[in-house]
Write a structure and sequence with these properties.
about 200 residues, alpha+beta, 8-stranded mixed β-sheet, two-stranded antiparallel ribbon, 10 strands, about 30% helix, about 35% strand
Amino acid sequence: MQNFQDTIIVKQKNTVKKSDSTWISKSYSYHWIAGKDTLNFVIYLTEYKRSGEFCLDIHHKEPILFSAVLEKIKACLPLIEEDFDMSKLVSLYFMKPIYYLDLSTKLSSEYEQEFGRKSVDFREFNQFLLKSNLTPEFNNLLVLLNKKVRMYGFEKFHIIEKKHYEHYLPNVDFTDYPEFSVNAHIGMGMSLENK
């Protein structure tokens, strides 16, 4: 457990289902809590038996700034290092870009400059992300782990128009959001490599 003013991070060991125990060696979650309330943010870590590699998976129900997510990961690293070999971190997964106003705005602007609003294939989109401002943001965090971004992945990538955002995030004020956002069916992940 780690204190940050009135917020604490609580580590929880997750039970690995019997059906998953053949390929998962351990799983932990890190919850942000203020008082008696669980805040809108959880980091899940899952380690794979065969390789000892693990992935970091971000979950939240409400929108949050992407810059805040990166700061929360940074704050959690000392706790994670107690149970995981950071050299074995191979991927990070995040919610869809529309969950992050700052990320959605930047990516949409850069995407529109390069492609307009047309859809592109996975390879083009991966190259776009590698050249985007997203990569230096990630690498500023990953340099602490002696890692860098190698590739990105979106499952079922497509463009979503602003009028459809409510389908994903009901009861959110989208006034400041861009007119369209890059989107993915499950979420965004990236693979990492040691520097």
